[in-house]
Design a protein that fits this description.
Oligomer: single chain
Order of helices and strands: EEEEEEHEEHEHHHHEHEHEHEHHHEEE
Radius of gyration: 21 Å
Largest sheet: 8 strands, mixed
Distance between the termini: 23 Å
Number of strands: 16
Strand content: 15-25%
Shape: globular
Number of helices: 12
C-alpha cells in the first residue's frame, strides 16, 4: 500500500481537491479523498506542498522509433521511405526499450505515449501505445492499441515526387490514397462474402489484410495534415470511406474551425512552437488550440518528437498565454489523448480503479519554472530531479 499525501490534486474528471490522500494498491488507485485513514504499514509519499495530477499522455510521439541517439544522420527506424503505401509495417518492431528519450520523458511527468511511424508515406503503418517502463516491447505496450498512420501534404510529395514517382502533387497524394482504400474495401467485402461462401475466398494479400480493420472502421487512423486544404481533403476522403479518424497537427485548423467544431473532430495540435520551416507551416499560430476548443473540437497537444517531449508542459504554458483555457490545457494531455487512444478506462484521470499513473510537480505543471519530482506508473514511483 502506498499513500500519497497531496497538497493539490487535479483529478481532471472530478475537479480539484485540496489536502487529499490517494491510496494505491497493486498498481491501482484504491481510494482518494480528504478524510482517508492511512494504514499503519503504508509507504508514504509526502506531496503536501506539491501539485498532483494524472500522468501526462502525448498521443503523437516518435519516442524510441526515431532512434536517439542516431548512429548516422538520417538513420532512423520510424520512417520507411521506400514506398508511399506501407500499411503492413509496425512501430512495435522498432521500439527500443532503452532509448534515450524514455527516462527523460518519464522524468518530466509522462507515463504513457503513442509512438507513430513518420509522415513520409501516405499510409505509413501502425503506431503503438506504451507505458514508459519495462525492458521489452511486449512488456511496455498496451495490447490492442494499434492505430494506422496516414499523411497528406508536403511530406509524401517531397519524398517521392522529386523522382517523378507517384505522388508528385497533392492530387497524386489524394488519388493514391483513395485508390488504396478502394482496393482495401473491395478486399474486405470479398472476405465478408467468403464467410457465407468459402468458394469466394480472395487470394491472400498481405498489404490489403493490414487495412481490413481500417476500412471497416475498427482501427483509428491518424492523418497528418497541416494546411487547411489538406485538413479538408483528410475529412473528405475519410468520410467517403467511413474511417474513424483524427487530424494530426491541424496547423491551419483555425481557418476551418467552424467545420472542425461542427464535426466534433479530434485534433492533435503541435508541435506548439514550430518555426515556419516549410510552406505548409507558414501560417502556424500559437492560438490554434484555443480557437479549436472554442469551436467545439476536441484538442490533444503534442510535442511530435522524441526526448523533446519533456519540454511539452512548459510549451503548454505559452499556449495558455495565447488563449487556451487552463481546464482545456489539462485535458489536452490527460483524458483527451486517453480517449483518442482508447485507454481512458485505464488512464487519463485520477479515479478509483484506474491505473496508478500519477505525476507530482513542485509548482504549476505548465510553468517553465516547475519540475516534476515524482512519476508513478502502475504504482511504481520514480524519483525525478531530486
Amino acid at each position: 500500500m502506498i499513500a500519497i499525501k497531496c497538497g493539490k490534486v487535479n483529478t481532471i474528471t472530478n475537479g480539484i481537491l485540496e489536502n487529499a490522500i490517494i491510496l494505491v494498491e497493486n498498481g491501482k488507485i484504491k481510494e482518494i479523498g480528504s478524510n482517508i485513514s492511512i494504514p499503519c504499514d503504508a509507504e508514504i509519499i509526502d506531496a503536501s506542498n506539491y501539485y498532483v495530477m494524472p500522468g501526462l499522455i502525448d498521443a503523437h510521439t516518435h519516442i524510441s522509433t526515431f532512434s536517439e541517439p542516431t548512429t548516422r544522420f538520417g538513420m532512423i527506424d520510424g520512417n520507411e521511405m521506400s514506398n508511399p503505401i506501407t500499411p503492413f509495417i509496425r512501430a512495435m518492431d522498432a521500439l527500443n526499450p532503452f532509448d534515450f528519450a524514455i527516462d527523460k520523458v518519464r522524468n518530466a511527468g509522462f507515463t504513457t505515449v503513442c509512438t507513430l511511424p513518420g509522415s513520409a508515406n501516405i499510409i505509413g503503418g501502425t503506431g503503438i501505445v506504451f507505458k514508459l517502463r519495462g525492458h521489452t516491447a511486449e512488456e511496455m505496450i498496451i495490447p490492442g492499441t494499434e492505430q494506422m498512420k496516414m499523411a497528406l501534404g508536403e511530406n509524401p510529395r517531397g519524398v517521392y515526387g522529386h523522382d517523378k514517382k507517384l505522388p508528385m502533387t497533392r492530387m497524386g497524394v489524394a488519388g493514391l490514397w483513395r485508390q488504396t482504400l478502394a482496393e482495401a474495401k473491395d478486399y474486405s467485402d470479398k472476405l465478408k462474402e467468403a464467410e457465407t461462401d468459402p468458394t469466394k475466398v480472395p487470394k491472400y494479400d498481405f498489404k490489403m489484410e493490414s487495412l481490413v480493420k481500417v476500412i471497416r472502421g475498427e482501427m483509428k487512423v491518424r492523418i497528418h495534415c497541416h494546411r487547411s486544404d489538406d485538413i479538408m481533403t483528410a475529412i473528405r476522403v475519410a468520410e467517403e470511406f467511413n474511417l474513424d479518424y483524427s487530424l494530426e497537427h491541424a496547423t491551419e485548423g483555425y481557418k476551418v474551425a467552424d467545420v472542425l467544431g461542427a464535426k466534433k473532430a479530434t485534433c492533435v495540435v503541435g508541435p506548439l512552437l514550430m518555426d515556419p520551416v516549410k510552406q505548409e507551416l507558414h501560417a502556424v499560430s500559437e492560438e490554434t488550440a484555443a480557437i479549436l476548443c472554442e469551436a467545439g473540437a476536441t484538442v490533444c497537444l503534442t510535442a511530435d518528437t522524441g526526448s523533446g517531449t519533456a519540454w511539452l508542459p512548459g510549451n503548454i504554458g505559452i499556449i495558455i498565454r495565447n488563449g487556451l483555457s487552463e481546464e482545456d490545457a489539462f485535458r489536452s494531455v490527460t483524458i483527451n489523448p486517453a480517449k483518442l487512444l482508447e485507454i481512458d478506462k485505464k488512464v487519463g484521470s485520477i479515479e478509483v480503479g484506474k491505473d496508478a499513473d500519477i505525476a507530482i510537480f513542485d509548482g504549476h505543471p505548465f510553468s517553465s519554472m516547475t519540475l516534476c519530482r515524482f512519476t508513478m506508473i502502475d504504482g511504481v514511483a520514480y524519483k525525478n530531479n531530486l
